[in-house]
């Protein structure tokens, strides 16, 4: 009886693990492809210019917020396409958290639904809390 | 140097960093910051933003493989991510108030610590003795496969591990690194879980921890696409290559060489931090 319960539980966990593994891989592959495409466009247009990272000025306007990045992507700007890939990469572990909420819900593990929601909440606060200063 | 040659050299450097990082288990992110600041004279704030993104890439890439094998303790990772993400947010906030040379000195110290950690004797403290009520309530105790068998283990000292993880999170948010060495220390020595489980679970957590501070740094303008492009692609390709190359036989001398290089870079970061050059 105990053993059966354990193996069933283990199986459900295994499915979640497979799903999480797939999602992470997909996220990394997609974002690196987007970065690569953006990089080729950026280098073909600006490759001959000089890099300037010695002095910190922050990235140019439009590369530090989602609407700005997306607008540049629509205008086919290489820098913005790279940044879109970077945003997708940052989103990959965050989407993993959101997935886990659903997975723990299916497993009826409500304690971990709450724990996972707390982690998601901390990230949301970090994103929207105006911490950029 | 034009942007094209700068990008190509950086791509090679990042590839090497990813390759060595994955072969030695030290992670590629640790050398990205000294590579960018000392070799390419990039401002440390851009370097931190770039390294954060690189650590998300390598962590997610390798976690996808480990998670499938069922070694990662997902519940433990999830629970401790509360500590690491809150720590990371705190780290990202205090980073604004710290002068960059102080950040460079702290970074150098953590780097030396990480290099030393890679030499410690791998003592297995894991037991199946159930001592923590909290671990039971949080369902942290688990099992993992060893040569086809399922081995049970128990988690100990949950509050101690939690606070150590919070510290690891602060360092990650402040310095833009995964701080895997601190995470493994918390799980091996304090929580007493099997070595294989702690390394994979730590790796699993790095992506989320880094993402928590990356969203702040992105808005702050630290994350520059021109740097992220070669570094992310290079580190990922290097780490992937390393995982294919990994012949577990003789990485000992490689680890020694890499650790010496890292210690040298760390000392230079500390020196430049003290003289105010970074």
TrEMBL record, chain A:
Top-rank taxon: Bacteria
Annotated Pfam families: DUF1634 (PF07843)
Keywords assigned: Membrane, Transmembrane, Transmembrane helix
Annotated transmembrane regions: 24-43, 81-105, 110-132
Protein name: Putative membrane protein
Species annotation: Chitinophaga niastensis
TrEMBL record, chain B:
The keyword DNA damage is annotated on this UniProt entry: no
Pfam families: TauE
Superkingdom of origin organism: Bacteria
UniProt keyword list: Cell membrane, Membrane, Transmembrane, Transmembrane helix, Transport
Subcellular location: Cell membrane
Cited InterPro entries: TM_pro_TauE-like, TSUP
The keyword Metal-binding belongs to this UniProt entry's keyword annotation: no
Record GO cellular component, one term: plasma membrane
Membrane-crossing residue ranges in chain numbering: 44-67, 88-116, 162-185, 197-216, 222-241, 253-271
Membrane topology: Multi-pass membrane protein
Membership in a protein family: Belongs to the 4-toluene sulfonate uptake permease (TSUP) (TC 2.A.102) family.
Full protein name: Probable membrane transporter protein
């Amino acid at each position: 009886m105990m053993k059966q319960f354990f193996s069933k539980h283990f199986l459900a966990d295994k499915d979640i693990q497979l799903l999480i593994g797939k999602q992470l891989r997909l996220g990394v592959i997609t974002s690196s492809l987007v970065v690569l495409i953006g990089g080729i466009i950026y280098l073909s247009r600006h490759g001959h210019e000089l890099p300037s990272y010695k002095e910190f000025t922050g990235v140019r306007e439009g590369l530090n917020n989602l609407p700005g990045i997306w607008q540049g992507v629509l205008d086919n700007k290489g820098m913005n396409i790279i940044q879109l890939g970077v945003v997708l990469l940052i989103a990959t572990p965050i989407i993993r958290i959101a997935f886990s909420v659903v997975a723990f819900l299916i497993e009826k593990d409500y304690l971990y639904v709450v724990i996972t929601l707390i982690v998601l909440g901390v990230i949301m606060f970090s994103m929207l809390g105006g911490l950029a200063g | 140097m034009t942007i094209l040659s700068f990008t190509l050299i950086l791509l090679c450097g990042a590839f090497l960093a990813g390759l060595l990082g994955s072969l030695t288990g030290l992670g590629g992110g640790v050398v990205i910051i000294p590579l960018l600041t000392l070799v390419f004279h990039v401002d440390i704030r851009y370097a931190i933003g770039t390294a954060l993104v690189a650590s998300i890439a390598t962590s997610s890439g390798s976690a996808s493989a480990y998670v499938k094998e069922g070694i990662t303790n997902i519940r433990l990772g999830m629970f401790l991510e509360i500590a690491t993400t809150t720590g990371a947010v705190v780290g990202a906030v205090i980073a604004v108030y710290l002068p960059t040379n102080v950040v460079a000195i702290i970074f150098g110290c953590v780097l030396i610590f990480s290099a030393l950690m890679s030499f410690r004797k791998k003592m297995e403290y894991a037991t199946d003795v159930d001592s923590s009520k909290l671990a039971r309530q949080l369902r942290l105790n688990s099992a993992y496969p060893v040569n086809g068998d399922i081995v049970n283990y128990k988690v100990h000292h949950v509050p101690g591990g939690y606070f150590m993880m919070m510290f690891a999170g602060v360092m990650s948010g402040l310095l833009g690194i995964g701080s895997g060495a601190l995470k493994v220390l918390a799980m091996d020595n304090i929580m007493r879980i099997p070595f294989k489980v702690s390394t994979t679970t730590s790796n699993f957590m790095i992506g989320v921890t880094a993402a928590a501070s990356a969203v702040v740094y992105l808005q702050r303008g630290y994350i520059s696409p021109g740097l992220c492009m070669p570094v992310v692609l290079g580190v990922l390709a290097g780490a992937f290559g390393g995982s294919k190359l990994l012949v577990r036989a003789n990485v000992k001398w490689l680890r020694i060489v890499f650790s010496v290089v890292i210690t040298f870079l760390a000392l230079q970061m500390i020196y430049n931090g003290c003289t105010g050059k970074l």
